[in-house]
Design a protein that fits this description.
One of its GO terms (cellular component) is protein-DNA complex. α1 links the parallel β1 and β2 (28-32). The chain is 44% helix and 20% strand. It is an alpha/beta fold and 229 residues long. The chain is built from 8 helices and 11 strands. The chain folds into 2 domains: 2-128, Rossmann fold; 132-226, Arc Repressor Mutant, subunit A (Orthogonal Bundle), CATH 1.10.10.10. The strands form 3 sheets. The protein has a 5-stranded parallel beta sheet, sandwiched between helices.
């Protein structure tokens, strides 16, 4: 799956140029033309990098960056034509990872984005190893912190839901019956209420799947049980 880039830019000509070059380079692109819509897209759409213009109507790029950075971990590149804006980006700690000056060539933009995505991937993998976190696609689980992120957004699970997900992720591609899951996760043997396993599976799907009715991670193996893929 190609990386998804969010462009927040009110100048339609510039936004369309950026979008077209990024799409030619193989990226999936979403364009928003104001800060409010940009924040909503950043918080509710899985993205891998954000290109954010400083001079936006109503809410400027600095405020947009602050609001996004509080909740989203992906790289943010700010775009500006003003030298004093560059000083602000460097000095105010608004949360941007880098900046690019207008006018810029498409090749410079693409090169910067490729480098930032590669660096972000390395740092994410390093962080996962250092915290003993489990990463599977867009799902990241940290056993020490008892936290789960989907597309870099934290989802809040109850204790048994977390333990069930952790067990399935650590035993990826292995099929377990309801009885086995009840024994392994709940610590109880036979004569248990195995229906509670199905209930927790359904809750997990609601929290971590894009389409819970067509789950792509927690798979039902009919007549046998469940597995995580």
């Amino acid at each position: 799956m190609s990386e998804h880039i969010l462009i927040i830019e009110d100048d339609l000509d510039i936004a369309n140029i950026e979008r077209d070059y990024l799409m030619v380079a193989g990226y999936e692109v979403t364009v928003m033309n104001n800060g409010t819509d940009g924040i909503e897209a950043a918080l509710n759409t899985p993205v891998d990098l954000i290109i954010l213009d400083v001079m936006l109507p109503e809410m400027d790029g600095f405020e947009v960056c602050r609001q996004i950075r509080d909740k989203v971990r992906v790289p943010i590149v700010m775009v500006t034509a003003r030298l004093d804006d560059i000083d602000k980006i460097r000095g105010l700690g608004v949360g941007a990872d880098d900046y690019i000056e207008k006018p810029f060539s498409p090749s410079v933009l693409i090169a910067k984005i490729k480098a930032m995505l590669a660096q972000y991937k390395r740092l994410t993998e390093k962080d996962a190893m250092e915290t003993n976190a489990i990463q599977s696609g867009e799902i990241r689980l940290d056993p020490k912190m008892m936290k789960v992120w989907v597309n870099d957004k934290e989802v809040h699970l109850k204790k048994k839901e977390f333990q069930l997900l952790e067990f399935l992720m650590r035993n990826r591609d292995i099929v377990f019956s309801k009885e086995e899951l009840y024994s392994r996760v709940w610590g109880l043997d036979s004569y248990g209420d195995y229906a509670t396993v199905a209930v927790h599976i359904n809750r997990l799907r609601e929290e971590i799947e894009d389409n819970p009715s067509d789950s792509k991670h927690i798979i039902t193996v009919w007549g046998v049980g469940y597995k995580f893929v």
